[in-house]
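User: Sequence in, structure out. Go.
Assistant: Echoing your sequence, followed by the structure tokens.
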Amino acid sequence: MMKSVSSFCLSYCIKWFISFYVNYLQLRIYSCLVKSAPKKKNATENLKATDMLAWVQAMNNIANRATEIVNSELIYTA
């Protein structure tokens, strides 16, 4: 009885740790992509000051692309 409880606890802890680590990686990769992309896509403060709608569209596009990259690399391939 004790052996099955401890193996259950161990497997639960391993599953929790893997889930936690994958979520951590998701957030790190997503934030890296979102922080670096505006410079490459010209979604700068200058665009924000001159054309707010174009800046919002560019930032939404960046966020959506980052989400797709994270999902395809970490979630769908696992």
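User: And one key feature?
Assistant: The longest helix spans residues 2-40.
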